[in-house]
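Honest question from a wet-lab person: if I give you the sequences of every part of a complex, can you actually get the arrangement of the whole thing, not just the pieces? Trying it with mine:
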Amino acid sequence: NAGVTQTPKFQVLKTGQSMTLQCAQDMNHNSMYWYRQDPGMGLRLIYYSASEGTTDKGEVPNGYNVSRLNKREFSLRLESAAPSQTSVYFCASSYSYYGYTFGSGTRLTVV
Amino acid sequence: KNQVEQSPQSLIILEGKNCTLQCNYTVSPFSNLRWYKQDTGRGPVSLTIMTFSENTKSNGRYTATLDADTKQSSLHITASQLSDSASYICVVSAETNAGKSTFGDGTTLTVKP
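Yes, you can. This is the full assembly:
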């Protein structure tokens, strides 16, 4: 009963490096989301996927790309990391928009 | 613009005491309101979900209320415990914007012995 699994849990990048954050859910949910949470602030939506094969921009999409690989997996890619992207990243999934299940987060530091 | 405002920003109470957290929203047309608990270093966990027709929902010592007319919700915590120390987040969804729920910034609750 894993729920939403995010990898890695921690990552340090140098400015300009690229990386992909992985997210997988085993609840057969249609929708998946990527959020970032900066210290002392609320969650902000980066991208979401309402269903397999679709993606849409959220509130803060600049500097990110996403791929809905299949119904289970939704990845977030940073092509050229910047210090402003230092944050905690949460993946979430939902059957509709009725309620989210969140992963445990990825702590990313860009130096 | 859809907005969710939570108050207070932070709160300190003694163990065993009750407290109430507030959430005001301007999301329209309203679909549902959820309260989440986020422990430090963890992802948010759902506490309650309420639709337009529901004005109260309980989950153990947590009771959420909803007044859709005034667009206000509250989360009442009874007989607080040290483990209640966390951030409590109010999230509101609009019927026409399924993928873009509006999050409040949260209330940080600290329960002291």
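Two things worth pointing out. Residues 80 and 104 of chain B are 22 Å apart (CA to CA). Chain B has a mean pLDDT of 93.
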